[in-house]
């Protein structure tokens, strides 16, 4: 076990990595560590989600914003909006005409001024909450004993947060060279 201090952003990264591992078939020691760590983090993640839950007015504006993004986005060969993932989570749409989209967004903000202000405050508060630190005890994992391939994103989240220990092999004994007479 290790006591670790994480920002809420790091907490979410670790949670995502653990959820990936929860869906893998793995040896019992890794499954145990993942289960213990998931249990240790669950209340913190739930508290974070509750703290950043969108008010109804902001949810309604977000629904309109996404529809507006999809309407003005470039399309692929199948006619789907072209978007790229940022941080593996949120989508950024590539617009057909950025100026036209920005004008439509400005009109939507003006129509929903109160919700737009609330959205701005909510985004700023969420950024601050992501920086807050929490302390948690986590069960460590010795990667030398794990017989599972990790995607780089999962491994990065775990290693950067000291959840995994990488056992370094002991140095081979140095044999004395026979002395020549």
What would your notes on this structure say?
The protein has 181 residues and is of the alpha+beta class. Helices cover 54% and strands 13% of the residues. The chain contains six helices and six strands, in the order βαααββααββαβ. The protein has helices at 8-22, 28-51, 56-72, 98-111, 113-131, 152-160, and strands spanning 2-7, 83-86, 90-93, 133-138, 141-142, 164-165. Helix 1 (8-22) crosses helix 2 (28-51), helix 3 (56-72) runs antiparallel to helix 4 and helix 3 crosses helix 5. The chain is globular, with a radius of gyration of 24 Å. The mean pLDDT is 84.
Short note summarizing the structure:
The chain has 181 residues and is of the alpha+beta class. Helix content is 54%, strand content 13%.
What order do the helices and strands come in, and which of them pair?
Layout: E1 2-7, H1 8-22, H2 28-51, H3 56-72, E2 83-86, E3 90-93, H4 98-111, H5 113-131, E4 133-138, E5 141-142, H6 152-160, E6 164-165
Parallel strand pairs: 5-6
Antiparallel strand pairs: 1-4, 2-3
Helix pairs in contact: 1-2, 1-6, 3-4, 3-5
Q: Tell me the β content.
A: 5-15%
The string of secondary-structure elements, in order, is EHHHEEHHEEHE
Mean pLDDT score: 84
Q: For the largest sheet, list the strands in their spatial order.
A: 1-4
Structural class: alpha+beta
Radius of gyration, in Å, reads 24 Å
Sequence stretches where pLDDT stays below 50 over 5 or more residues: none
Distance, first to last CA = 54 Å
Q: Summarize the biggest pleated sheet.
A: 2 strands, antiparallel
Overall 3D geometry?
globular
- The helical percent reads 40-55%
Q: Figure out the total of helices.
A: 6
Number of strands: 6
